[in-house]
Sequence to fold (301 residues):
Amino acid sequence: MNTIQAFEKDMYLQSDFLKSFKNQKFLSSNQQTNAIFSGSGDSLVSAMLAESFSGGIVRAMDPLDLLKNKQLVKSKHVYFVSISGNTVSNIKVAKTTKKTTAITSMPYSRLAKISDKTILLSAPNHGVFTAGSISFLESALTCISLIKKINISNHLKLFSKVRLNAKKFKVTKRIFVLGNLYTYPIAMYCAAKFYEILGYAVQYSKIEQFSHMELFSVKKGDTVIIFEEKNTYNKQLSLHLKKIGINVIHPDVPSEKLSQILYCIFFSQFITLFEAKKKKKKDCHFVLAKNIRNVSNQMIY
Fold:
């Protein structure tokens, strides 16, 4: 099985996984005040979602920032999100932190062994090294459910709906992904899928900040993806961008917050999968780019 096939097969496991997902016991207001969520890559996205759904009470922090600024974790309970449980920055911070919880798929990893508590991620996958999909979905929902109880039953039809919607759109090679308080982390996740699967140079931004900064680097024919339900502000942005020759993708994002997150996660996966198939790719870019991956591994592990 090649790595694009594995990515697609893992994606399709998500629909059944949603039916079996169980909420964590959510943190009290006082516990949230004293909590920091930390992670890298997709795991930082999950940590940022915890922050968003807490209304800013919980903090999401980069582990290297915590390592270099140890006063930030004094008297804090740090929740480390790490699928592998072997990211060196997480491990170094965990050794200096008063109370730690590892959110990981690996119960015997170095991070799990030194943490006070482990929340085990156990979603199935096909056991092939590929871009993250179901593992990310589980970590994201786990982090959100630590903040508030979530109801998945109303969202089971989203997967199929998003698949049909994503098929309508085409991307160009220069892409900007925009998001709001809740979907900005998913804009980051979407960019990561384009990096990992296709090697595209993608930028992600808050919707307001785009008009102040990234907009000045766009060129005719570029693609802008807007992860927010349609409203007066982003409709105006879309109209102005189209007038100057920008390919605007503004999918039918729901207004309810958890639905927004799930929709944008699935859309990020499908839009990159369909682009990879269009380009007849069999393997993810990051799997083939061995020299670059070697640098990444040396820095991460």
